[in-house]
Amino acid sequence: MSFVFTMKTILITGGAGFIGSHVVRLFVNKYPDYTVVNLDKLTYAGNLANLTDIEDKPNYNFERCDICDFEQVLAIFRKYDIDGVIHLAAESHVDRSIKDPFTFAQTNVIGTLSMLQAAKAYWTETGRMEGLDKAAENAERCRFYHISTDEVYGALELTNLAGGDEPGGGPFGDAFFTETTKYDPHSPYSASKAASDHFVRAFHDTYGLPTMVTNCSNNYGPYQFPEKLIPLFINNIRHSKPLPVYGKGENVRDWLYVEDHARAIDLIFHKGRVADTYNIGGFNEWKNIDLIRVIIKTVDRLLGNPEGTSDQLITYVTDRAGHDMRYAIDSTKLKTELGWEPSLQFEEGIERTVRWYLDNQAWMDNITSGEYERYYEAMYKDR
Ligand code: NAD
Ligand code: TYD
User: Fold this and answer.
1) Has residue 303 been placed in a domain?
2) What distance in angstroms lies between residue 240's CA and the mean position of ligand 1's atoms?
3) Which atom belonging to ligand 2 lies closest to the Cα atom of 92?
4) 288 C-alpha to center of ligand 2: Å?
5) CA-CA 20 to 30 A from 320: which of 60, 141, 203, 329?
6) DSSP secondary structure string for all residues of 26-47
């Protein structure tokens, strides 16, 4: 079934994080008649400074809450009379998942289950959900949209080493992840996301909860926590610190500008098919080392350094355990069915991104000095 969804009280989880903050900003600015509720625990990755430009808007609300706390989540559904959910809150960094898989299972699996249970409970008690046999009617009254990753599909092989015509020199193989690719996660992060995707679909198939899932490729852009490749390397170049390249730097990632992901989420939330899955990506594969060279060149140029100044910072280090070789998303379905395409060429996106981090050094310094975390702990400790 497909129709334009018109519900207006939207709960966005993980809205203080990287992608979530762009989604919150888009919804608050584009839909002044919606009530947008940002539910976030403010872990190390959550930062309300990502939202200072919209925090005073009348349609924006913030609730500090752990998605694993079912009772508190349900109370938030009741407080605002939520009719749509966009669920982004998660632990998101593969390296952390290797060190601490329990936290990933807790947040990504149990947390998602708690969100699903709360949505089902509230929408049942308010008559929006009437069970499996009324799945079509349910879908006109409420919606649960789960944001996932291409990493659940596992890894593709590098079969086309010479590359192709895409901006980063790809595609580096003939195979792509499609919506029907079998799940084959390798890291504790991707395993936890895969488990959460399965729970979401199970809630549709078992209870008639109107769900949808999207799986997106690697995002880049402003407000990304500097443990991820692109902001980490921009910051390290600024401080002339080593750039730790895992393995030989030959792994391939498919990069999408974060605002294009947020636009896709907006489109799918309103016009996508319930009980369906869409892949989101920009056909933009880069070998890590080639991407790193572009970052170095761009940062050096914008800092006024002679070309090549920071090449010497490249430091090859021990590879990540179980490092997936290649991710490549086929987003043809999204283009064909809903007309979505990325709006930005990669060259422009990376230029914008590097400029943003260099122009917003206070944002970066607050995070890397650890002060922002203590600040929010102190701010909320009596709640
Ligand atoms: P992020 O780590 O930047 O932000 C995660 C947010 O979730 C933070 O604000 C954090 O405080 C919040 N959070 C974590 N645990 C929570 C809990 N228990 N309760 C409430 N809030 C909690 O992540 P991101 O990169 O913005 O990713 C957002 C979502 O998109 C995730 O579900 C991720 O799997 C998915 N995704 C990310 C990418 C990417 O390239 N970053 C690509 C595809 C999909
Ligand atoms: P990352 O940004 O952590 O995203 P993901 O693991 O979800 O793809 O890493 C992107 C790629 O960069 C990945 O192949 C691992 C590699 N990488 C490095 O080589 N060095 C680093 O310090 C980091 C953080 C990542």
Assistant:
1) no
2) 29
3) 7
4) 8
5) 329
6) HHHHH-TTSEEEEEE---TT--
Domain range spanning residue 197?
A: 9-220+256-287+323-347
Residues 120, 209 contacting (CB under 8 angstroms) = yes
| Strands of the 60-64 sheet, one edge to the other | 60-64, 35-40, 9-13, 84-87, 143-149, 211-216, 277-280
> For this structure, is 151 an active site residue?
yes
Q: How many structural domains is the chain composed of?
A: 1
Q: What is the DSSP string of 82-123?
A: --EEEE------HHHHHH-HHHHIIIIIIHHHHHHHHHHHHH
> Which three-class secondary structure state does DSSP give residue 9?
strand
60 catalytic, yes or no? Answer: no
Q: Spot the catalytic one: 122, 145, 189, 207.
A: 189
172: number of Cβ within 10 Å = 26
Residue 309 lies in a domain: no
Ligand 1 touching residue 90 (CB < 6 A): yes
Q: Taking the chain, what is the end-to-end CA distance rounded to the nearest angstrom? A: 43
pLDDT, tens digit, for every residue of 33-47? Answer: 999 999 999 999 999
pLDDT tens digits, residue range 75-126? 999 999 999 999 999 999 999 999 999 999 999 999 999 999 999 999 999 9
Q: Which ligand is nearest to the CA of 285?
A: 2
Residue 245 belongs to a domain: no
Look up residue 176 and give its amino acid: F
Tell me if 21 CB under 6 Å of ligand 1: no
Q: Report which DSSP code applies to 49.
A: G
pTM of the model: 0.96
In a domain, 365, yes or no: no
Nearest ligand, measured from the Cα of 219 = 1
